[in-house]
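Lecture 7, part B: from sequences to assemblies.

Below are the input chains for today's worked example.
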Amino acid sequence: MASTATLRKPASGFRISRKMLPYVLSLPALLVCIGILIPFFTAVIYSFQRYRLSQPWARQFNWGENYLNFVTDPAFWNTLKVSLLYAGITVTLELLLGLGIALLLQRRSTINNFISIMLLLPLMIAPALAALMWKLMTNPSFGILSYLASLIGLHDFRWASSPDTALLTVVLVDIWVYTPFIMILLLAGLRSLPTQPFEAAALDGVPRSFVFFRITLPMLTPYILTATLFRLLDSIQQFDIIYAMTQGGPGNTLTVFQVEAYLNFFQSTNVGRSAALLIILWAITYTLSNVFIKNWLRLRERARGEA
Amino acid sequence: MDTMSPVERVLRALALTLVVVFFMFPIFWIFLMSFQTNETILSIPPSIVFSPTLSNYAALITGKLQTAAGTLDIAFMRNLGNSIFLSVTSVAVALVLGVPAAYAFARHKFKGSEDIAFTLLSFRFAPPLLVLLPLTQYFQWLGLSNTYFGLIWVYQLICLPLILWIVRGYFEDISADVEYAYRIAGHSWFATFRKIALPLAGPGIAAAGLLAFIFAWNNFVFALVLASADKQPVTVGALAFITSSGIQYGQIASAIVLSVTPTLALALYAQRYLVEGLSLGAVKG
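Predicted structure of the full complex, as structure tokens:
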């Protein structure tokens, strides 16, 4: 008797009310994420403390001192400069290259589709491993790129081990890995544009530069914005490529935010400064991501509305 | 567009060739290098004509590296095993937690649902070290340092938002009317979810799972901070391997080839889902 009662479908005693259902469904995912919010608040507290792992007894609140110290700290300004420079250069070059390649591949054909699939491959390689690949290729004693550089007269071109060219080298790796990301996003955008304006322009014999700047670019703008913000958010936080390639060196040439914070934490064991650096980076990315999410939702709604 | 001058045709072909060479050459070159002995690699000028050897792969698989100084133990296969275990388990956990949540977000506009969804999404864009560095201390207190359990939990930071947002989009695309019809026929919400919603969103769930796997596999910083040598995946292991093996360039190249093959194979298999997944559905339509 009892067993038949529990087998019947809407088991009356253990029924989740319709109102509670969504909360019950999303609760496990939320719990996992709350576990992540706790360390976040801990980091905020660290950033207001004088806290060195080597002197745990001297740990105490110093309120804004970690942040105030940044104003007169040349290392901090270097971090800010290198991070912005890295993000600015990579995103600009990747955008131009990605747009160019997307335009080249715009027309659907077997060869173009094949190439666009091939170009996805660098994006699928772990950035840290991509950095190692380029490290092998730029090795001074046998690297193919060092050899090619010597062929065009650049003897003893040191790539990532010289402060003059280290930024250039990691930017090159970043471009290799992430240009395909912008390319596929813009290619998807280009191929989804309505054809009528282009047909009308072709009928009227409008010059192609005019078509590109007055029709293609404006219609592609939401895609370009999405791709740019997506990349900007990742690029300003770049860690894998730079750490795997040079550990932030030579010297402090490439100590971008996350690399500097990592080195502060594990090498100089200055937890307070490390946390303050990361909070500043978080503030930058949070602002950017709010702009991004708004823009993205608008695009998403539009895509849904038209579909 | 259809009226391309011959000059333009040639220029386009030339530009495309340069693009393909730039993006394909590193993969091609490292692949070749993995079949070369150190002597071939170090010879100048570099040549693509050489007698290939499998000795690099043999050394990695047997874990014994013969050097002039003696035999060196390498644990690279263990890194490969860690990568497989961590990625597969993390994706499985993320699917179990994420798919019901994605369904809830797609079907029920409940109080705070948008806020929660945004908070989850914002993890995708927060600096990972901000969470990882304090977490090293919590993990020490909780005894989770250098455990698979701890790592899989942290890997949810990558996998869960990805699955939640992609799968949510797929659920939203399914007309709710089909589900109402099934429910009116007297079936419970769970039966509806299992028999109607899940199969219809199946391809989306599979795509999200594959992408989450690629992202988990390619992650570097989580394990760098939270795992010691015996739990490290290939991304961290390969870097340590370079430091420890000194000048065994052929083995380094073959280690890289083994490490990137799974993601490249999956990418080729699932390429049509990649655009949507990578942009979290941002360019749907």
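Note for the exam: Chain A touches chain B through 101 residues (CB under 8 Å). Keep this in mind when comparing with the next example.
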